[in-house]
Amino acid sequence: MLRAFDVVAPATEVAVLTPEQHDRSGAVLLGLAAGDALASGGDFEWSERTAAAVDLALLTADGLDPREAAVREDPGPAAEPDVGDPDAAGLAAGRCLLRTAPVALALLDDPVALAEAARLVSSVRGTALNRTAPTDSGRPDADPGAGDAGVLFALSLRVAVLEGRLDPRAGFETLPAEARAAWEAHLAAAGRGRTVDVQRVGPVGWILQGAWAILGDAGAVDASRVEPVISAAAHSGADPASVAAAGALLAGRWGLEAVPATWRRRLHGRPDLFGIDLVRLGMLSARSEVPHDPDDPARMDVLR
């Protein structure tokens, strides 16, 4: 059993965010980008993993439905990756998982629709991961567990924002029985700080399991501990996408004040955005009331 996490009944649907939920919705993409940037060693510049999530958030912030094919499709990195390159495959898997973060924000009020959209968005069919994971026959092979991992990540983010708690099993009821049993074992290992072989859980699932391994004791962590938890993970050699996912979950749980002010100010990346822009995109994706106009002085208030 995963330590520090309690399994509770699914949350009821909500239509209007409270001030606390509003605050937490704005922290998700910020925490994601911070974890990615710290683990990638890019002087607070987030990688293509975060850029993929931001690209989708730019669409969900405008009210577009992530279940629409034109919205959910990941165009992939600007440069075509080399087939069989493990680094490119890892980057593609990270993109698959992290792109479900803005999906979670956009569909907070509908867990059924969220599960559907997360499975579609995190699916690797037609994405760069297919082109970087050849089978023995030389043909690309999809990650069959990517959809389950995307659902678990998205519904855990939903619970973090709406209920202020961390629950890796928030999406268990949506999984097939066989997948649920497998993930029970994977999460139990993560609670002990361990990950399983990537062949057993799949590239996307391995990233998610790595995030929960980082958060194994995080249920007892207060807001002041978010920085040391993410910093330690970033310097431990953990996969940057796992650190990013853990950052999204922790920030979604604790809100904007848990993200250090220096991180907020220094974060930047493609497409020429900064930390405050991620806060705005997160809140707009969650249909929170945030000014659209970047010159509006009220826009600066979201970082307090």
Mean pLDDT: 82
The amount of helix comes to 40-55%
Structural class: mainly alpha
The residue ranges in which pLDDT falls below 50 over 5 or more consecutive positions are 1-14, 78-83, 125-141, 296-304
- Taken from the alpha-carbon principal axes, the silhouette is globular
How do the strands line up in the largest sheet? 1-2
- Biggest β-sheet description: 2 strands, antiparallel
Q: What Rg is obtained from the alpha carbons, in whole angstroms?
A: 17 Å
How many separate domains make up the residues? 1
If you had to describe this structure to a student in words, what would you say it looks like?
By secondary structure, the chain is an all-alpha fold. It has a single domain, classed as ADP-ribosylglycohydrolase fold. Helices cover 54% and strands 1% of the residues. The protein contains 16 helices and 2 strands. The chain has a two-stranded antiparallel sheet with strand order 1-2. A hairpin with a 3-residue loop joins strand 1 (268-269) and strand 2 (273-274). The longest helix has 18 residues, at 146-163. It is globular and about 40 Å long.
Structure, briefly:
This is ADP-ribosylglycohydrolase. By secondary structure, this protein is mostly helical.
Question: Layout of SSEs?
Answer:
Blueprint lengths: L18 H7 L2 H13 L7 H13 L8 H4 L13 H13 L1 H7 L4 H12 L5 H4 L14 H18 L13 H15 L6 H4 L1 H12 L11 H9 L5 H15 L6 H6 L1 E2 L3 E2 H11 L19
Antiparallel strand pairs: 1-2
Index terms:
304 residues; mainly alpha; ADP-ribosylglycohydrolase fold; two-stranded antiparallel sheet; 16 helices; 1% strand; globular; disordered N terminus
